[in-house]
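GCN5-related N-acetyltransferase structure dump, as promised
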Amino acid sequence: MDNNTLDECRAVYLTAEDLRLAASILYNAYHDDPFFVDALSTSDKFAYEQKLRAAIREELNTLWQEKQALIGLFHQTRLVGVACVVTQKVPLGEGRYWHWRLKMLLGTGWQSTQAIIRKESSILELLPSKQCGILQFIALSPNEQHKGLGHQLVQAVVSWCDEQPELEGIGVFSAQEAHTRLFLMHDFVSLGELNIGSVAGQLLFYTSQQDE
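structure tokens r here:
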């Protein structure tokens, strides 16, 4: 993708009409994600894919209902990337609402729901304060990889963070080296190694660069 095409991309908040396509982008991007492969573990490929769809659908709907930041990267009118940030204004980890737990339980099962809760709790323990967000999802459409759009999407996230006066920064769990390198290029730093289930990774953190 050339620079002119990159210039035609814009980052805006998703609308309700965008959620179905956003869920599809996230599903394809996270299909082989180490955390979900571990958390939704099953020998049945079809069952795994059903559980992954349910987990993404429920989390996306919850973030929408809670008015969290759902950022879409558009090339002209086409959605090509998605980033979802949740702040601690929404109960996370062990504080998750019962209705979220019930829907996630029905969609993914007890063990998978508990694994998601443990992941969030582990991240929260390492964040500097309660005024920090978590980057829950970030993904590009499969056909949009290796075009420079990943940098634009991460930059959209950090720019959004810089504009939130109550937010001190954003944390993200990264278990893949290529993803870690991308975040580090955008001023994320490692807060330390983190093992979630059988998956080893790092908790990366971006500190808000708000104007004085």
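Residues 45-65 form the longest helix (21 residues).
lmk if u need the other ones
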